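Weekly puzzle thread! Below is a chain. First person to post its structure in token form gets bragging rights.
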Amino acid sequence: MTDNSENNTGPIYETVLFASLLTMTAGALDAYSYLLHNEVFAGLQTGNLILLGLHLGRGDLDGAGQYALSIGAFIFGTILVRFFQHQIKRAGRSDDFRKRWVMVYQLVVIAIALAMYPFKLGHLPTAVMALAAAAELQEFRRLHGDPFTPLMMTGNVRKVSEAGLDWLRYHDPQARRVAAETITIILSFAGGGFITGLMVRVIGPWALVVPMVTIVLALGVDIYKQKQGELAEHAS
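Winning reply:
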């Protein structure tokens, strides 16, 4: 049996390290699409919905359309990955297999979005990036067994505020761990945006390699932990 745990505390996919790489990927995607695709978000559909309503309220149908396209692509991407999840389950393949292939799918989709950029295809690359963001949210939704989203940080800001009070005022040791982990997640999300912002200034549209690198790192962490588990099993 493959051991995908980190320090035997749970699946690698539910650890802070892995979640941080996911949130960095999400932050990088949104920063890239916002900067280079007319302030449309690839993954943050809450923001797109607000901006969609804003443009409709102004009577700007062309401006509203770009947000509607990203939202529609995200919906389609979610359905596509959900279908894939069902097919993998029917085939009797493992969760590890499914999650790795979702990450590979993300890499391919982001690479396609990058390849589309020179052809001036308007808002289509943003829609393609939304497919990748949807895949991440649909597949990776747990941190230490609790609900988790790598695309939206509002709940995490609330969570760290609550845990911080419980730790500092009421000396709850569990709250200290929660606060530290949640801050790490938030900083990773912001870090993805920060790095992408810097790279856009240096290499322009090629900055889309940033989320690709973080996905490769996540895959590397997963494979490394798997090999560690296999070695430990053989040693025992």
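Puzzle host: Confirmed. Bonus trivia for everyone else. The longest strand covers residues 142-143.
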